[in-house]
Each structure stands twice: as C-alpha cells, then as structure tokens.
Amino acid sequence: PSVPRHTNRLINEKSPYLLQHAHNPVDWYPWGQEAFDKAKKENKLIFLSVGYSTCHWCHVMEEESFKNKEIGEIMNKNFVCIKVDREERPDVDKVYMTFVQATSGGGGWPMSVWLTPDLKPFAGGTYFPPEDGVHRVGFRTVLLRIAEQWKENKDALLESSQKILEALLHVSEIRVRGQESPPPSKEVMATCFQQLSNSYDEDYGGFSKSPKFPTPVNLNFLFTYWALHRTTPEGAQALQMALHTLKMMAHGGIHDHIGQGFHRYSTDQHWHVPHFEKMLYDQGQLAATYSRAFQISGDEFFADVAQDILLYVSRDLSDQAGGFYSAEDADSYPTTTSGEKREGAFCVWAAEEIRALLPDPVEGATEGTTLGDVFMHHYGVKENGNVSPMQDPHQELKGKNVLIVRCSPELTAARFGLEAGRLGALLQEGRRRLSAARAQRPRPHLDTKMLAAWNGLMISGFAQAGAALAEQEYVSRAAQAAAFLRKHLFDAASGRLLRSCYRGKDRTVEQSAVPIQGFLEDYVFVIQALFDLYEASLEQGWLEWALQLQHMQDKLFWDPKGFAYFSSEAGDPSLLLRLKNDQDGAEPTANSVTVTNLLRAACYSGHTEWVEKAGQILAAFSERLQKIPISLPEMARATAVFHHTLKQVVICGDPQGEDTKEMLRCVHSVFSPNKVLMLADGDSAGFLYRQLPFLASLERKDGRATAYLCSNFACSLPVTSPQELRGMLCP
Known about the structure:
Blueprint: H1 16-20, E1 28-30, H2 33-42, E2 45-51, H3 56-66, H4 69-78, E3 79-85, H5 90-104, E4 111-115, E5 121-125, H6 139-152, H7 154-171, H8 185-199, H9 216-228, H10 233-251, E6 265-266, E7 274-275, E8 278-279, H11 280-297, H12 300-316, E9 327-328, E10 331-332, E11 342-343, H13 351-357, H14 371-378, H15 409-415, H16 420-438, E12 446-447, E13 450-451, H17 452-468, H18 472-488, E14 490-491, E15 496-497, E16 500-503, E17 509-510, H19 520-537, H20 540-557, H21 590-605, H22 609-620, H23 622-627, H24 633-644, E18 647-652, H25 658-668, E19 675-680, H26 687-691, E20 706-711, E21 714-715, H27 722-729
Parallel strand pairs: 1-3, 2-3, 18-19
Antiparallel strand pairs: 2-4, 4-5, 6-7, 8-9, 9-12, 10-11, 13-16, 14-15, 16-17, 18-20, 20-21
Helix pairs in contact: 4-6, 8-24, 9-10, 9-11, 9-24, 11-12, 11-17, 13-14, 15-16, 17-18, 17-19, 18-19, 19-20, 19-21, 20-21, 21-22, 21-24, 25-27
Organism: Burhinus bistriatus
InterPro entries: 6-hairpin_glycosidase_sf, 6hp_glycosidase-like_sf, Ssp411, Ssp411-like_TRX, Thioredoxin-like_sf
Protein name: SPT20 protein
C-alpha cells in the first residue's frame, strides 16, 4: 500500500470508525478538550460529523467530500473539525440529533452539525452532496456560507444558538407532573395492540410498508399481550401477527441464507432487498425473540432460526477473549482485484455463478433437472437478477440476486417431481457450496469495537436460547461473555461499567487511554443479561453482580425530581443536555427495559423501593404511554408486568438431581412474561438465602424437588410434578 499523504489526530484513536478517517486531508479532532480549547482560542466555529463504521452514506460522504483536498482546505481554514463514533458516544450523538430532528424534521447519519465555540448547535443536517445540484445545496456551498455568516453576523448567530438550546431543553424534558401514578395497564396494552394491528402488514408481516425493520420490541409486546389474553380473539391475533412476521423475515432476503444472521433492515415491503450491514444488537434481540417463538409454538422452524443466528455470531462476531464485536459492513470489494466497494457484493449472486456451482443432475427428478434448477427456483433466482431497479438507485445490484425463499418445500419438490422429504438435503448441499464459494470473496469490514450494552443484548440472546432450546453450550457461551465483561468492561475498584474496549493489533483486548464510562444503556442491558444468565445457569454470582450494578445505576443516573433515569451521568460540561430517550426502536430504550429489571431485582433482593422506582418511571412516561404506546412497546409491555406483579417460581432441590433438572426444564419450556425463576438449593449461607429469608421456610416435599409459586413473598402449596407446575404457570 502507498504511504498516505495525510494523517490527522484520529490515528491515535481506537474506534474503527475514527481510524477510517485518519488519512483524510481534513484536520479531524476527536471529541474532547483539545478541540474545544482550539475553537475558543481561535474563535472558530466547530464542524461536528457523527457516524458509525457500517453506515453506507457515511462512506459516501467521506469519499465525495472528506477525501477531497479542496473541501478539506475550506474545512481546515474556517472550522475546528470533530469526528464522533455514535456507538462510542451515544450521549453526544443524541444531544445533536435532537437538534437536527427538531430543526429539519428528519435525522440520520452521517450527521453534520455546526456549533459555536461553546458547543451550541445553530445549523445542521445529515448527508450533503459535495456540489450544488438541482434539489440540494452542496457541502462546499454550505461550508462557505456558514463561515461567511460567522464573519458578518457573529452576535446574531450566538443569540440564536442560545434560543435554540432553551427550546431544546423545554421540548426534550420528560418528568412526572404533579402526583401522577403509573398509567392503567389494561388501557395502555389495548391501545398499543390496536396501534400495532392498524399498522400491521397482513401479507408480509411487519409494521410498515417500507423500509421494514425487524423491531423485536413489537414482537415481544405481542407475545406478552397473547400470554395475558390467550383465550380471546385479540390474543390469538397478536400471536398470529408475531409468528407470521418472524416467518416472513426468516424466508426473506433480510435473512442471510448462506452466511446466517440478519441484515439491518429491508428496503422493500417483502423483506427482500436489505441494507446489508449486520448489527450485533439485532442478532442478540432476534435470537431471544425466535427462541420465545419456539417456546410458545413448539415449531422447530423458529428454533432453527435462533440457532442460525447464534452460529453466525459465534463464528463471525466473537472475539477469542469472549466478547462480541459490533457489526459487519454492507459494502465490500466484489473481487480481490476490484478498485471500489459495492453494497451487498459479499452476499449477492449472478444466476450463472449458481449454475456453475450446482451443475449436478438430480436423481429421481424430472428429466434434465440440475441441483441449480431446484436451488434457483426455491430461492427466487432470475437469469437477469431479481432486484428491481427501484430498490437499487446506484445500480450496484444490477444482474444480481438476493436469495429469498419463494416457495414452500412441498411446492418446490412438486415442481420438479421430487419427494418432499428429499428437498431439505438438496438445498442444504446447495447452501454449503455457495458458502464455500463466498468464502473466496473479500470480506466486508468488521467493526471490532466491543460495547458493554450490545454485549449485554447478545448475552441475553445466548442465555434465553440456551434455556428455551435446552442447549447448554449457549448458556456457557453467555457465561464466557459475561466473564469477559467483568474482566474488560468493569472497574471493580469503582464498581462502574465502561462503555467500550477494542481488538488490538495482535488480537489482544485494548482500552483507550481515557476509557469512556458506561452510559445508562450499558448498565440496563448488562443487568438484564445477568438476570437472564442467572435464570439459564442458576449461578448466583451473576445475580449478586446484577444487584450491585443496579445500585450503581440508581446512584449515577436517577432523576429524583422528575423521576426515571437520565441516559448520561451528570458532570460532563461538554454535554449541553441530560436527556431521557423516549422511543423503543431498533433497540429498546433503557428506561423501558429497566422497569422489568427493577421488578426482577426486587424479587431477588426483597428491596421494595425498586418496585416503587419502576412505578415512578411509568408515571414519568404516562402521557406518551396513554397516547402513543406504539412508540414505547417495550415499556407498554412492562406496564403489564408491573400491574400483574412478578411471580417467583422457586424450585427447592439439589441442582444436580434429575428431579430438579426436570422441574427446571418445565419452567424453561413455558413462556410466562411475569415469572422470575430461582433455585433454593438449601445452602443457607448462599447469596439468595441471605437476601430472601422466606426461602428458609420452603422445603422439599417427600425429599423430592418441589416447586412453589410465590407472589409478594406469600407462596402457593408445594407441587412435585412438572405437569402440575406447568398448569400453575399457564393458568
């Protein structure tokens, strides 16, 4: 490789996204004091650019503008330029995204914002083309205009930035007004179900026309709604909506049929042509959701998809030390000799490639049928490509195919005169050969940053799948990752989580010179993961750590005046706003998940003030939950858990005993949204017995493993058979 012409300060960073920009002719600074001081000293505006390493339009803007020498000169002369990886600093991203959304009506990445030297935003947008076009003003023009304004009208700019900040403070405040109590759960659940069924796509599943996101939060809401209304038509409809959506997604092109796992979202209504990046947070949530679908329906199809996701993560997103990487990019070089990357190049196929790989005649099929014919028919492959030009504005997929299951196995078999039972093996062989061929292609960029929050979501995925599918290896993988978090993303001396760590040059785990402290979402998703891991493994050490982290979360983030948690801690002068996110989107928002965490924490500790906090969060979000619960489906779900109180399922028994294991398998095989599992192993000096004195009064009946269902520390009569226990869990 040639020696780079330019090198800026980003060369000293650890984030893969910042390192991608280290050789731009732009004099980039990371977010921090050095840049702020320079802006103040030289009285210069700041240009802030925020993105992430698997963001397609971020790459485009870099190619067009940030690698352009003349544009770089304009930027360096007039601005202090700062680059932020939004996955490292979600707090900075959220403050300025709130501004961009409020002023332009839209938002997204790359985010481009201009700030005064004291960090107040006054102009912003997302992607800008380099030069003026018919409909859009170009980046060069915007830079020059803003620099001119700063020269001519500095005072007016400063004044308007102050007004903007005051307005943002007002708009973004979420707090309890007066003596509010939690909203009525029945109405919130009914409204949320109604809003979801109104936006539901009957044909293809999902909750919008296009683009279509997996949104596990919606599916989890529907599962809980079903569990509380099993015998009603609405309950049946909720389950049908969730299972149909999961089936259609698994058949679609958003699911990588050759390399496993799920892409980020579909650009069309049919789940066919995706944006090809793969994010850790999607894999973690979807593994859990498909496991739940299997638990509820007993249909092996869903178990297979969960295993497919976990295979992908174990193989492609796992660090040898036990952590999980953040993402794989959408863009890659089509061949080893290509000069430029294309979106989806790693995943798409020309018909003739598939024919060449699968030329074998198929025995017992209609005369002349090849394995390629069967495979191409089943996966919707067309001779001149199956991507409509509408889904491919840059013509990157012309003549290519995104595999999508177009037929049932029975139909494909019938089409070629095959016995239905033979099709599975033929398709599997086809996928195996395509996978081997794909392994010869250049791989997309891997973002090897490891984030506490997303690792938490993935640990939950492995733990829940391990429990529901009775696969011990998944539970072990979850425990390995939790041990990784404890070693690399937790500071035992201060009791605090860290946000991120990185894969170093020689594959060791590295930390930044000044580690980024954990945010609310890091605590919340890790605590959830530890509860899930305890229920799957019954190792009390995970519980103990979860409760310690919950106390720390309360201390760092709780808002005693307005209730609920702030997403970042106090005391960072460079953050203009302390915000509370109010949308369950691709990831659930931290305050939504923490409601259930607090209720679980109270069950394992007897600290009732945690139940009170859960109610106060619901009260703070009460207005939104009553009007548009569809924007907070995870919190709407939590209102039901809060209302119905969690049931403690206590199994008294010897952890190694076969009778105990049978009772545990029964608990794990049942979907019950308001159960908390614990094992009373008779060790009165152990953590749980110290936390919950009432456990000492529960005994094994006739020396056999015995289950009790307890609520508010009052317990049912003991049962010793899995059948009776199942009856109690599914009233």
